[in-house]
Records
---
Amino acid sequence: MKLAADPRLSVTATPVTVPARAPILNDRLDTLSDYPFSRLRTLLADVTPRSNGAPLMLSIGEPQHEPPALLGQVLAAAPLADWSKYPPTNGTAAFRAAVHGWLCRRYGLPADFVDADEGILPATGTREALFQVALLATPQQKDGRRPAVLIPNPFYAVYEGAAALAGAEPVFMPATRETGFLPDLDALSPDLLARTALMYLCTPSNPQGVVADLAYLKKAIALARAHGFVLAMDECYSELWDKAPPPGAFQAALALEAEKPGQGTANLLVFNSLSKRSSAAGLRSGFIAGDPALIRAFTHMRSYALAGNALPALAAAAALWGDDTHVEENRNLYRLKIDAAEAALGGRYGFYRPAGGFFLWLEVGDGEAATRALWREAGLRVLPGAYFTRSAADGGNAGQPFIRVALVHDTETVARACETIARVLG
Ligand SMILES: Cc1ncc(COP(=O)(O)O)c(C=O)c1O
């Protein structure tokens, strides 16, 4: 049988034209600087450490303490079959109950203040959740204008990326020594607040390690309610404190409830994590908790976007939130390191003991120059403060004179590293 020629099947048809240009991507990405660690690689690309010793990474906030034995025990005991199951978007009842129990214990909350079933979601680390919250909170328009997302300056890079990619305008709130290293909430204009869709706050803060007090947190919540925006409280360093446990936003909401009942956790989402509390950054486990209306919408959104924690990881996370002993031990180790840092650096570079977290925010004159010198002379890798800050309209960058130093190694290593910083920077 002879097939009739079909011109549509002809191999000599017009050649496919290859587009000259790449596909058009989300051009909001172009508004972002490179991620701080990429910038650091570029800054140090042409610098070779003089010393033969192993380089030491004081740049990344990855706890180096051994994770608690409990983590390994629960993972080892998990039935193999659990690995074959897709994890539910809202986790397991046991996970939510463990987080709920911890919140009540830690912040003295009554059992019904945060709803264990309707007010808590698992996060695969707070990073992704802090990213997604901007997608959740950003409408097309707010007050008839482009929505703003308020971000402390300096800031955790994810806030800016999330805001920009959600289509909002990232608006930076200075958090300098003059403002106590926290944004001045009284300086926000009503005009800006009217178009604000989301405010990120971090306490204890990264990189400065300062803690917001209860009055500050109450003010932030009141602003969110008065202007109809979401307050995202990043509390992932809350368990690593020096002298006193940092207050949490739920405590502030509870105090407001006593003054004006009926609001509960309205407008508030709290983010916390096992990465720092339990030295388990690799577990990728945290939670989102708060306003049940926001949690409901978030659950809906996350049914499209969340990869989720495997059931054994959720079981391990539940066990860790249920145990405070390992956290106390962890905290004590960080205090020893801050003691060592204070002995080596006290009285220089504006040193102060961070009230929470494990970073030093040192004022060294020129953060990039100091970073290059420390890498060249001693193989110590730190991060320039300018990589955490956006420049102001006048071009000034408040982070430029600083470096951030992560005290995540053992005490002896930290002590030696801090002595080296003092020697190299003079
Ligand atoms: C301020 C801040 N928020 C959130 C995170 C995210 O931590 P994780 O995703 O491990 O919970 C970090 C991690 O370094 C951080 O510094």
Note: The CA atoms of residues 144 and 195 lie 8 Å apart.
---
Amino acid sequence: MALMTGEQYIESIRKLNLQIYMFGKKIETPVDDPILRPSLNSVRMTYDLAQMPEYQDVMTATSALTGNRINRFCHIHQSTDDLIKKVKMQRLLGQQTASCFQRCVGMDAFNALYSTTYETDQEYKTDYFENFKRFATYVEENDLTVDGAMTDPKGDRGLAPHAQADADMYLHVVERRPDGVVVRGAKAHQTGIINSHEVIVMPTIAMGPDDKDYAISFAVPTDSEGIFMIIGRQSCDTRKLEGSDMDVGNSEFGGVEALVVFDNVFVPNDRIFLNGEAEFAGMMVERFAGYHRQSYGGCKVGVGDVLIGAAAVAAEYNGADKASHVKDKLIEMVHLNETLFACGIACSAEGTKTKSGNYIIDLLLANVCKQNVTRFPYEIVRLAEDIAGGLMVTAPSEKDLRDEKVGPYIEKYLKGVSRVSTENRLRILRLIENLSLGTAAVGYRTESMHGAGSPQAQRIMIARQGNLGAKKKLAKKIAHISE
Ligand SMILES: Cc1cc2nc3c(=O)[nH]c(=O)nc-3n(C[C@H](O)[C@H](O)[C@H](O)COP(=O)(O)OP(=O)(O)OC[C@H]3O[C@@H](n4cnc5c(N)ncnc54)[C@H](O)[C@@H]3O)c2cc1C
């Protein structure tokens, strides 16, 4: 089975024995939980769209490992065309879900590990590349969703992993056995782990010789013994329990993050992709971060498309759409959004072949892409809030709208242009609220800031890759300076 249907995907997640905790309770059937279900629907869309003939080219690819048709989320990029299609696929999914669809982290881990395991093997004569290819083939052939787990809790940010007061602040090997290793620690902010079949664990920072036990990468099933997940709250999450799809803004789709604890988890030898070769931790981090920073030039742009559309509809419903400043604000939003897309496409088009044969983005341009993503969605949200008006945060509930006594007053006084119902006006404002301040703001705003690394992480890479020396030479040549 190279491609699962959406329904098959849901049932495959239902069969997992995941240990998920929320509001102090173990969630027995996460697939049917009203708070969690929208996040599963978003991942499902990555399966549903792959089944549709009109999206085949962007959503599927020919596997380099088996020659079979596979979902692009499992693909090892073979060309710059693959890198470009990845970004287009992500924009499409952002447009269809208006949320984080969670499957990108695994895809980005896949491509980072493919080249890093190859280069580690070349140096150390290890078997990581073969281990990884076997795992990748299994994932592709079964069309699995994989979580990419990089971020450790990190404790004191000023100290290296081995120097922390609590040795578990970075995930590490606690026991070495002939058949594998036992690991302990945690990964924070894990996007979509509760909707994933497997988790790929990677180190979170470059490491030195004292951090050998922390330089560990592997993959295990998400329901392995010792793994449990504690769901992160989102602003307005319990609105989903109130039974009003209107008040939620986007009731069908969403994202989800969790703190994932690895409490003495066994990893068999054939699932290990790095184990003590500390100098390759940095390469893995840099490549994963590069691919993930490219990703944001697609996914956030798709969500931006929905938000811009919502702002334009709100302007129409308010009767303000003909005002020149409103038109100009919408133009600015489109300009910012397309600039992000341009960066995503540019770092893909300038991609190059790695020693292992897969393709990697231009790292400088991918970091510029993500640096812009830490800013532009905030400005797009600001403009959307400006256009929407204050009602996006002061509107009464759907229950009040339906109430016999107060409902008619809401109908009357919260109407915009006469041809549009008050309900429709409130619906579009709730969507803007959801994307700016509600559950989807986790994915559209704060994930834009910190996901794939906080802004300073990109500036460090831009400083490294910017080649100021060459630029100074150019200036001196033009100015006829010889020293
Ligand atoms: C919505 C969301 C989804 C995410 N999904 C995933 C995921 O799926 N997988 C995953 O692995 N990670 C994920 N992340 C984690 C993301 O990569 C981290 O949030 C990011 O790397 C920042 O780490 P932090 O949150 O621990 O912030 P911190 O490290 O606490 O950073 C806070 C501030 O301190 C600064 N800082 C931190 N350390 C230092 C230092 N040593 N010196 C100077 N300044 C420092 C930072 O630059 C930043 O300004 C997600 C994050 C979010 C918000």
Note: Residues 279-318 form the longest helix (40 residues).
---
Amino acid sequence: MTANMVKATGTQLAQSTNTMRCLIKENLNADGFTYKTDYPQATVGSDEVKIKVLATGICGTDKSIYYSSQNEALRNEMRRYLAPGAAFKPIVIGHEFCGIVTEVGEAAQTIAKGLPPELRIEVGDYIAAEAHVACGVCVPCRNGQEHVCTHVREKGIHENGCFAETISMPYKNVILLGKDGNTKSIPPRLGALLDAFGNAVHTIEEANVAGKRVAILGAGPLGLMATTLCRRFGAASILLTEAADTERRFTLGTKFGASSCFDVSKGSSKLHEYIRSTISDANGVDVVLEMSGAAYTDAFKLVRNGGTVVLLGLPKKPLEQFDIADGIIWKGVTVKGIFGRKMFSTWQTSLRLLLGDPFGLQEDLTQILGKEDYPLDKFEQAFASLVSGKAMKLVFTP
Ligand SMILES: [Zn+2]
Ligand SMILES: [Zn+2]
């Protein structure tokens, strides 16, 4: 037994009580979360596994849920599966996590028994999980596009999530990271980042960046992950833009492979001049990755005729003015929207890149994380640190 092992006993890990600590959202019209110490533990359905959460990432969506009074679209999304007029039922927030399996439901055990040992998920295993639970039967699901399932239920948005000591997940959503509690492959604070990292991997895979001149708009955690991935996927040049906290973000971005960085607080017309002089092509770059949610107009101005724009960042409100003819049609631009991770090919790509870590990608991800992790009851400090820009990406250790 080493420091990297979490001990499992028997077929079920001992759980001392039936209650747990967690962060819940009680009222969508009020900002903030409520810290609970006596919330019921996650119950495990027949086709599910129960997981003891080791680490959980805080993402932009969680920040939007924290400040839900200011976001009507999000409030509507969180009410999506409620009967019309029904009162909002409090739920546990959080969807990015890794942990140890403590219980396997009956139907899930039957699935496991029919598989070779290396594919079995068993009590004591170290795992991450896809938090989007697809219905499996809608038209996109039946076309191999479960990531855009029309009846998706997202943990931490529609159902209880992972800012808690325990969570339950369908067996098919679980991703094995290490047998018998072995966390050596990917340390838990990076295991908690796999969901977000998967968004960046999905973006890069769709963008086809090899040999291309790429502009990445937004140098937040996902923009920085995209930067290091672009370099590894063989981009010819990488221009990174950002408006806030540029000194730290550009230092990291340059380290990760950005060939030039531009502070967009100087105004976007200057950006257009700059990018065209940098790549010596007045028409624009081959590929633009919009990772900020705030630079849609720039994205379509910066892309060259016949180029590709990949959109991951979520705008805060609908775009009021956008010239489709000028931005897309006359330029013959290919536009791709990215939501979540492909189930489950993106997870497999992510693990191929991170397991064994031949190119030091784990070290890059570690540098995006804040220096210290937070216990759940220090959530107010954690969100304050994210909002002030002191930290870019943080992890709770429930
Ligand atoms: Zn997220
Ligand atoms: Zn579906």
Note: The mean pLDDT is 93.
